[in-house]
Design brief:
Elements: E1 6-11, E2 15-21, H1 24-29, E3 37-39, H2 42-51, E4 56-60, H3 62-72, E5 77-80, H4 87-99, E6 102-103, E7 115-121, E8 127-132, H5 146-150, E9 152-158, H6 165-180, E10 184-188, H7 192-208, E11 212-216, H8 217-224, H9 229-236, E12 242-246, E13 252-256, E14 259-263, H10 277-290, H11 295-309, H12 321-329
Parallel strand pairs: 1-5, 1-9, 2-7, 3-8, 5-6, 9-10, 10-11, 11-12
Antiparallel strand pairs: 2-4, 7-8, 12-13, 13-14
Length: 330
Amino acid sequence: MVDIRYDVLGIGNAIVDVLAPAEDSFLAQHDLAKGGMMLIDADRADLLYGAMGSGTESSGGSAANTVAGVAALGGRACFVGKVCDDELGRIFAHDIRAIGVDFHSPPATSGAPTARCLIMVTPDAMRTMNTFLGACVELGPEDVDEDLVAASAITYLEGYLWDPPGAKEAFIKAMGAARAADRKVALSLSDSFCVDRHREEFLDLVEHHVDILFANEEEIISLYEVDSFDAAMQAVRGHCEIAALTRSEKGAVIVAGDEVHVIDAEPVAHVVDTTGAGDVYAAGFLTGLAEGRGLPECGRMAGIGAAEVISHMGARAEVDLKALMKTKLG
């Protein structure tokens, strides 16, 4: 048995996030589906980037945000993702390593540029994402080191990886390596539109390959094609070891076999930007598991992290998350 070197290994799209405030009129003008994530090409990315207001740039992508949160909480984290050897690729690599996440993936020296996600945040804190995947689509099974997976207690995968064929193969290889090493696999459904695209395959993943599932209310209802959250919660019961289901201001529900834990939402004075809320939620939950905490406390850690990140612009915490947890949990 390989010794555990990392609490969480994240495999996902290596994306530089560009966040900027925007009015609803901007979304209408550019025919953007509010609250969703759309894949766009290079020309569309250039057009929207030029039209956006002043923004901030940082390493991003769902799984990258999660492992960044794990590192901020004191966990041992590693990330696998594809960037190009260009300015944005160097920004991504420097930023994620500075946070404390190990990142060894070699940059591509040719092909598409590093991916970017253009995130428009409206005054109601909803984020509308337009993603140019760029070099991300070149992630393939050759980028997954089975020994690295075996050395990680939990391999965390984002549903968005199921879109590009090569990344899907990487996803499958990582799950197989985790299972062979008797490690855990965690999956985020990522987006209700992503669920719509891959519902039958996601149902099979949850049933046969995933130990820990993360989904928000809309995503889990879409996955099981039911009319209510309660029906979706009952549908997922028993299909994976743990399902952590978030409900925004209604908090979250953790389902594990016969256990059901209802976790109240942490109070937030003012919701500014929901970008990264689910990612940091997963970080808190997985770190709690790695520390051997019970499911209710894992849920509290997750909610505390999510509440912090939605109180300001950007997908990363602006305070010492480890200290915050100590203060909140005692």
